[in-house]
Amino acid sequence: MRLTVLGCGDAFGSGGRFNTSFHLALADGHRVALDFGATSMVALNREGLEPDGLDAVIISHLHGDHAAGVPFLLLYLHYVVGRTRPLTVAGPPGTEDWLRRAVAVLFGKTDEPWSFPLMVEPVSPGADASVAGLDVAAYPVVHGDMTSHALRLSDGARVLAFSGDTTWTDVLVEVARDADLFIMECYAPEGPCATHTDWETLRAHLPEITAKRIVLTHMNSAMLARRGEVSVDTLSDGMVIEV
C-alpha cells in the first residue's frame, strides 16, 4: 500500500501542518483515508488526490483534528460530485450520531438523503472489521475522556499500525507487533502528559516495539524544534511512503 501524509500536525496546526489524515492507495484499487481532520479536504486537493476517489474513511477517535473533515467530504460528494457509489465511514461506537450532529451544526443539513449510500460502521476492540479491502483491528488507548483507538490495518500483505492519540499504554506494543509501519504520536519532547505521548517516555519503550519502521506524528512546536534529536523518522505533510 502507498501512504500519502495529508496531515501530520497537532490540533493547532503547529509548524503550519495540517490536521491528522493519511491517504492509503491499496494494491486492489481501493482508496482509504485514515483519520480525516478539519483540514483534510484542503490537503487532498493540495496533493492532487480527488476526494471522490475515496472508498472509505477510518477514524481513530472523534476529536475535530481527526474527524471534522468528514462533513465537508460528504457535502462535496453530494452537491459537487453527485456521487452515487457507496462511501463507508468506520469509527468508534457513536460515530453515526456524531456525524449526523456535526453535519447539522456545520451546514444545517439534517434529513435530506445523500446522493450516495452512506454506510457508517462501528469499530470496537475485540470485533475486527473489514473496510474497503482492509482488515481493521481496534485497541483501546488513553486519551482523556474520549473513546480513542489505536488501529491495526492489513491488506493481507502489509500491516500498518497507528497509535491514534494516546498517552503511553502498553497495548501499543501489541498494536505495533511486527507491523511494516507504525505511525506513533509524539506530541512533546518531555512529559508527563495525561492525553498524549512524549518522546522521553516513548524512547524508553522503543526496545519493546517490533515494528519494522516507526515514524512520529502529531508533534507540537517544541517537539518539532527537536525532531532532529530523535532516533526514529518523523513525518512531514506530503510525504509518500511505500508500506
Description:
The protein starts with a strand and ends with a strand. It has a single domain (2-234), classed as Ribonuclease Z/Hydroxyacylglutathione hydrolase-like (Metallo-beta-lactamase, Chain A). The strands form 2 sheets. It has a 7-stranded mixed beta sheet. A 7-stranded mixed beta sheet has the order 7-8-9-10-11-12-13. With 243 residues, it is α/β, with parallel strands linked by helices. The protein is built from 7 helices and 14 strands. The longest helix is centred in the middle third of the chain and has 13 residues, at 95-107.
Main traits of this protein?
14 strands; alpha/beta; 243 residues; 7-stranded mixed β-sheet; Metallo-beta-lactamase, Chain A; 26% strand; 7 helices
Provide a short characterization of the protein structure.
The protein is α/β, with parallel strands linked by helices. The protein has helices spanning 40-46, 64-67, 70-81, 95-107, 171-175, 199-205, 221-225, and strands spanning 2-7, 21-25, 31-36, 56-58, 87-91, 118-122, 129-131, 134-140, 149-154, 159-162, 181-185, 214-217, 233-234, 240-242.
Write the layout of secondary structure elements.
Elements: E1 2-7, E2 21-25, E3 31-36, H1 40-46, E4 56-58, H2 64-67, H3 70-81, E5 87-91, H4 95-107, E6 118-122, E7 129-131, E8 134-140, E9 149-154, E10 159-162, H5 171-175, E11 181-185, H6 199-205, E12 214-217, H7 221-225, E13 233-234, E14 240-242
Parallel strand pairs: 3-4, 4-5, 5-6, 10-11, 11-12, 12-13
Antiparallel strand pairs: 1-2, 1-14, 2-3, 7-8, 8-9, 9-10
